[in-house]
Specification:
With 242 residues, the chain is mostly helical. The protein is 81% helix and 0% strand. The protein has a domain of 79 residues: Alpha Horseshoe (Serine Threonine Protein Phosphatase 5, Tetratricopeptide repeat). α12 packs antiparallel against α13.
């Protein structure tokens, strides 16, 4: 009798254990999904509460730690952001998004050298993701390495040819580097991809204005002002009235 009972008891214990783990994981996932919704609505307190519950259910939930890091970053709490991103990376050393995120936080803290190292690692792990190239470009530009920054933006755009922010940044840095025609072409590409991108109108207008194309520049500024840009409206008043 005992020989029959022991296997049955073990089976029951295993069944209950597996069921508990499965239930905990499902519950953790539900809390995580709720956190994503609250994050999108900028209710960061509720999102962090959801993530605490998700991690309570699954202490090895690397995505929950990663999202905690990004939310603390949005709240301006950079040290806490690093702390939670570190936890995510400790659980998953090849977690590209967390590594890229840690680079973003370090760049925000003006530690551009360390940020570039993080982006280098993210690119090594996921060479076909455009965001680490874009972020590395911005960090390099802050170190006045414009040519290398533009090369990174070239790479990001080659991966995603609809990457409006990359076109916009490349336009800005091309202008700084003296490539006027390249800058104009990139600003126009941004407007082609996203006609609501008001900053692109302003960037193109100011670049053209500085190169003597004042009439065209003022038309662009008026367009941006019509789209609701307060800055463009002020520039029209200052630059485009006789």
């Amino acid at each position: 009798m005992k020989k029959n009972i022991i296997p049955g008891a073990l089976f029951l214990i295993l069944f209950l254990f597996v069921s508990f783990v499965s239930y905990s994981q499902n519950t953790a996932n539900e809390f995580y999904k709720s956190a994503l919704i609250n994050d999108s609505q900028k209710d960061y307190t509720a999102a962090l509460h959801d993530l605490d519950n998700a991690i309570f259910q699954n202490p090895n939930y690397d995505s929950a730690y990663c999202l905690q890091g990004f939310i603390h970053f949005k709240m301006g709490e950079n040290k806490l952001a690093i702390k939670f991103l570190d936890k995510a990376i400790k659980l998953n050393p090849n977690y590209t998004d967390a590594i890229n995120g840690r680079g973003i936080v370090k760049a925000q803290m003006q530690d551009y050298i360390s940020a570039i190292k993080e982006f280098n690692k993210a690119i090594e792990l996921s060479p076909l993701k455009p965001k680490p190239y874009f972020n590395r470009a911005l960090a390099k530009a802050h170190l006045d390495d414009y040519s290398s920054a533009i090369k990174d933006l070239d790479k990001a755009i080659s991966i995603d040819n609809n990457y409006t922010n990359a076109f916009y940044s490349r336009a800005f840095w091309k202008d700084i580097a003296g490539d006027y025609s390249g800058s104009v072409a990139d600003y126009k590409k941004v407007i082609e991809l996203d006609p609501s991108y008001r900053e692109a109108y302003i960037g193109l207008a100011t670049t053209m204005y500085q190169h003597g194309e004042k009439v065209s520049a003022c038309e662009l500024l008026k367009t941006a002002a019509e789209k609701g840009s307060i800055m463009a409206d002020e520039l029209v008043t200052n630059l485009c009235t006789e």
